[in-house]
Amino acid sequence: TSKPPNKDIKEKEVNINKEKKPAEKIDKSDLNATKEPLKPVIKLQAGGDSKDNSTAVRKPGVHKVLSLDATLTPRDANAVGQFGQAALVASNEDAEVRKRWDEGHFNVYLSDQIPVDRAIPDTRPETCAQNLVHDDLPSTSVIFCFVDEVWSTLLRSVHSVLNRSPPHLLKEIILVDDFSTKENLKAPLDEYMSQFPKVRIIRLKERQGLIRARLAGAAAAKGEVLTFLDSHVECNVGWLEPLLERVYLDRKKVPCPVIEVISDKDMSYMLVDNFQRGIFKWPLVFGWSALPEEYIKKNNMTISDPIRCPVMAGGLFSIDKKYFYELGSYDPGLDVWGGENMEISFKIWMCGGEIEIIPCSRVGHIFRGQNPYKFPKDRQKTVERNLARVAEVWLDEYKDLFYGHGYHHLLDKKATDIGNLTEQINLRKRLKCKSFKWYLENVYPDMDAPLVKAEGLVFNRGLRKCLALQKGSLSFEICDLSKQSQHFNYTWMRHVRQQDLCVAPQGKGIGFGLQSCDNTKPELRWFHKSSNSALAEHLITEFVSHHLCLEAGPQGDTLHLNPCVPSNALQKWQFTHYRAQ
Ligand code: LR7
Ligand code: MN
């Protein structure tokens, strides 16, 4: 998975608490200042703009974010990795590091030496500690799913929640064991966690994958809000209340913390750049991108304001439990890993909700180069299949862009069984969700999503004439933009098409004709690039296994498939407009 842009923490940049400083105490009387439910949703301002913070705290119904941190005065200030700093391994330990790397695909050897309750720098923007939140925030169940997680990172994840969450808001921590095989995650984990009454462990009887494991956790949860986290994270100071506040303000808001980077090599805690949001590129690949500068200016945004987010990374978010089920939770047909973040993101936005990144809530995550666990089936195939399910249910006509970016093979129904989608499609209808076009225009307007790759006239360079479709057959004519018969699309399915008819080789590729377009037929597909390729402007058929190119007869009365010759102008075809390469 992709890491957000990050940098090492310089001591000057953040307040690394090396001096002893008592952890902030909760004043229960403050929390219960008013029993009256707060009706109006007031947009809370950062305390930064009111000079007298004490009045803000006394305002009925709200209090300053509780910057609780039971780890501020660690027992072992000199321990390895303490305060989130880079830990060094002596060179004679290299072999050991390498030996244990594959247990988690990060520096497990080092992680095991770092205290499970280490302190980390409070990386929040300064105003965050002054922000006000409501006294009567809903409680949450924190759900960690894991399969063969490394002991020390799993424990560090749990301790970070216990140590940095207001106890009255933390209903429980649910650990869902997705059929781990490591022995220490069985009885020893039960025993370790038995000292924390809030921690419950659910054991799945067979490997379900993270999507169905999360559903099992959600089904058991008693809190009003579900908070999902990966099992190798460290929640930072004040992480929880800003998330719950957003859900409180609007139950259809789905807030995500800023995901910071815990180095897989030295376990240091790294800051990420401001204004990052989750996006996707084709074919539904998750990534990060900074908000456009003009957008920040136009909306007068500061670094602590919530950021509207087209898609979430997937692992870390809070959601109102009832709302999660109203949305139909996750598609339970998604297997093991991948794609569920796209599914829930499209679902949330298109069916009336919002996804936000909350800069005042920060959680570190170990980004790994590889999944440290096995996939029951082929990894690539599993993820592709998940994504195809999402594309089929949510992308409408834009699903062609998904398939057109390297996934044509998924259209072959015999080779890929993406399973039954009836329930998911019915769900979308029942919820009266908006179109993917609406999503692109309103949530992710800077996304480039042309519905065809090229369009207009199809000009043959050698003949200097254009392809035309007359009375069901192909011919050449003097180019004329005003004639609809000369207009073709080159689509993401790699079809050369006019309405429902596709240019197709016939017989053994000797003749040409038109067939009804059919996405599942590879013989209707043509490779075509306008530039940047040896065979630019050629139309290369997938009809036969070796390359053959569409060629105009020199008299302009025939079409052939011939071996491709880069210099042959009769094989060069140019569309009027190219929307994408
Ligand atoms: O079969 C499985 N069963 C599980 O319980 C596979 C995984 N899991 C657990 C696993 O132990 C871990 O706690 O599920 C969690 C997520 O798995 P990771 O850590 O291998 O996933 P990731 O961090 O590589 O990938 C991101 O994308 C996934 C797509 O399905 C999930 O949404 C992850 O939650 C998600 N992680 C994040 O969003 C953290 C930030 C990463 C980024 C960008
Ligand atoms: Mn992860």
Shape, per Cα inertia axes: elongated
The percent range for helix content is 10-25%
Radius of gyration: 28 Å
Count of discrete alpha- or pi-helical segments spanning 4 or more residues: 15
Largest sheet features: 8 strands, antiparallel
Structural class: alpha+beta
Strand content: 15-25%
Summed over residues and divided by their number, the pLDDT gives a mean of 90
Bound molecules: ligand LR7, manganese (II) ion
Number of E-state strands: 27
- Low-confidence runs (pLDDT<50, min 5 residues)? 11-58
Distance between the termini: 25 Å
Structural features, described:
- With 581 residues, the chain is an alpha+beta fold.
- 22% of the residues lie in helices and 24% in strands.
- Strands 16, 17, 18, 19, 20, 21, 22 and 27 form an eight-stranded antiparallel beta sheet that branches. Strands 1, 8, 9, 10, 13 and 15 form a six-stranded mixed beta sheet that branches. A five-stranded mixed beta sheet has the order 6-5-4-7-14, with helices on both faces.
- Helix 11 runs parallel beside helix 12.
- It is elongated, with a radius of gyration of 28 Å.
- About 8% of the residues have low confidence.
- The structure holds ligand LR7 and manganese (II) ion.
- Manganese (II) ion binds next to loops.
